[in-house]
Amino acid sequence: MNVLTAREAGLVSCHRCELVHDQGVARCRRCHAHLSSRKPYSLQRVWAWLIAGIVAYIPANLYPMLVTRQLGTTHEDTIVGGVIVLADTGAYGIAGIVFFASVVVPLSKFGVIALLAWSVTRPNSLSQHSRLHLHEVIEFVGRWSMIDVFVVALLTALVQLGAAASVHPGPAAVCFALSVVFTMLSAQAFDPRLIWDRPDTSPKET
Amino acid sequence: MAVAGQDDDVSRSCGAGLLSRIDYLHPMTLLACPSCDMLHDVPDLPQGRRAYCLRCNHMLVSGRHTSLDRTLATGFAIAILIVFALFFPFLSIEELGFSNTTTLLGVAAAFLDGWLIPLTLAVTASIVAIPLIRVALLIYALFPIWRGRPPAPHAARAFRWSEALRPWSMAEIFVLGAAVALVKVADLATIGFGPAFWAFCAAVFIIAFERQITDAASIWSMLDNEP
């Protein structure tokens, strides 16, 4: 296939509204966004946000997410501890959702973003289409990790029953929210056009 | 020169002779694929027809045409429902003679405890402020056009921000979080649903619907006449 990209043709497409301009134009004529052929410093920003996200994820798992006081006793739950409590009470479906959103999604997202950013500079590592699929998945799924933060917020606001029972957020809630935001920024910093900028030399599937 | 195919998915590459190919019968738009930067000459397609990038299969033309009536109606509905949800009880709980009622703002204020305050801002923003700001920007950009007037000043900027804020509007994630929280406390106490809970659920459905019926490209072309 004979492919001509906007960059090769001396054109720039607006990242926001997709209007095509000549290279050298600073701002989009239509929506006034800054124009650039590729997101500037894309990979550097991807790695920086990703490392910040991983760093924030560590205390998010070590500190308690939820502090429950019930009839005089205090109970602290970490993210994984909360999932185990849910599973013990028989709520396997809900335990599955929380485990998926708080553990599986963040961890696999770290791995996938790292793999994507690493493979873009190494043309032989992964085919362009599998990299594209990876990118689509992380863009879609990342925001859903926020669910556990909302659960903690709701429980804290709702369960304030004086001496009978009260729920308070733990320090992990902040760390976890930061980790989700940082990884979202990391995924947004990645420019999918980088996937195609080097010729694909990986073994073709037949 | 290739003529647009007969099937639903039409797209064509412009190849090398970019500027020499002007088809007067089929006015074409030059589009660079937002995912891989490949250039395409996309003809004006009849409504309902989609076009995909030849290289990476990213959708270039959604085939939808934004109806301003419907988009503005959903925008106003979302704004009314969220504002309504702010001022009415969201959930209530009762156990051993103790009871507590929370509003949406109470949920956002759950972290007003020492160094968790930034989380209050984040939660308020993602479930209330950003959805409302998005809708306000959308209405600001589209309402004058709907009235048949020229676009408002900075209408295109407003719409750009409305689109950029989309991933940070997390109302639907909050509703799923509410479901999880309810299961957690269902054994512990009796839960009551307030009117704000149902209003917020309705808002989430309408936000999803608004996303389905709104085609950014057709709104961009309406805003193109901005002075």
TrEMBL record, chain A:
Compartments where located: Cell inner membrane
Membrane-spanning intervals of the chain: 46-66, 91-120, 141-165, 171-190
InterPro entries the record matches: PqiA-like (IPR007498), PqiA-PqiB_transport (IPR051800)
Any Pfam family the entry gives: PqiA
Keyword annotations: Cell inner membrane, Cell membrane, Membrane, Transmembrane, Transmembrane helix
Top-level lineage group: Bacteria
GO annotation, cellular component aspect: plasma membrane
Protein name: Paraquat-inducible membrane protein A
Species this protein is from: Pontivivens nitratireducens
